[in-house]
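Q: Is it fine to ask for two folds in a single conversation?
A: Yes, each is treated on its own. Send the first.
Q: Here.
A: Result:
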Amino acid sequence: MAKAKLTSKGQVTIPKEIRDYLRISENSTLKFEIDDMENESRSVILTKEVVKEKCPVCKGDGSIQNGTFACFVCAETGEVDVGTPILLYIYQLPLRKYEVAISTIQHKKRSDGQIYFLQIPEIEINSDKYPKELLDHTHDYLYMRLIKEYAPKSINNSSLFMLPADIVLEEIIHKLKTDDAKKTVTRWFRP
């Protein structure tokens, strides 16, 4: 059981094992609920709030192209969880149900045999069931979330990205499939 002391300002540091278990990070929203059990001990239940937004792939419909294809990004719910780290979110998608494969690449091998880790993980999406245009759009949505999560942030303002060298930015942009995504990401780094 983890413990923490209350400061004179009414603040508590949540123990690391609890933060790790709930996958709490900076700016996570936590919910505190009073446990109304009729017993002598007073209890509060701490949970991480799930932050959802309308699925950008299906625009909240749960399906794509007038119902022709089920949206695998939101599992047909019309919402995506933006509070969960993107790699974990991808791993939790029921992709077999939709006959879609998403591979994540977090490290590569150099010509000299040395393995190195990628600053920003890469993804590949494959399916014989969905059209290439739709897979490209989905790839870009997921890769843009990876960029937001993994690209180095400014030391002075953590809501801004560090400005990479042009060649590094070109490598990032080159991995995107659609022109709209390329323009958007370029604006993130070159406002």
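Q: Second one now.
A: Result:
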Amino acid sequence: MPGAGKSTIAEGLELKGYTVINMGNIIRKEAKNRNLEPTRDNLGNLMLEIREKNGSGAVAELVKSQINSSTADVVLIDGIRSNDEIEVLRKFGTVKLLAIHASIDTRFDFLQKRGRLDDPQTKEHFEERDNRELDIGISDSIALSDYVISNVGLTKDELIETAFKIIQSWIK
């Protein structure tokens, strides 16, 4: 779910040499191409429009060129939202799913501190975003994950190191 720590992990693992592709950045790039301000409403509506027009795996389809052009043996995808996206990614190789769980209060706090233009600033907006994510199937993907990290009481470094060890165990 948004704010659980996925991007924190992705940034930390990128520093450790992993190639990371962020699904949300694909939507932000498309918004820029359409001269849309990257607001919460614009990005949310654009994400829904892309999925409605091209199917629920459409955002994963948009990262295919990045995956194809990567020379890395392992590519981390930040921000998978549906099982259909997972199926698209399986066309490129083995897919392992690492879910990050954090409480509602923790996630809201993280998102407020992150300060991206599209981050919810009210509980109402936060709940709207959660509901949008649930509507597109994120809970199904979380339920089918290979491993879940509970981001409760972990420091940033502990969170990143925990994810690093899990991913390392998958590629050995």
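Q: Anything structural to flag on that second result?
A: Two points. The radius of gyration is 15 Å. The chain has a mean pLDDT of 92.
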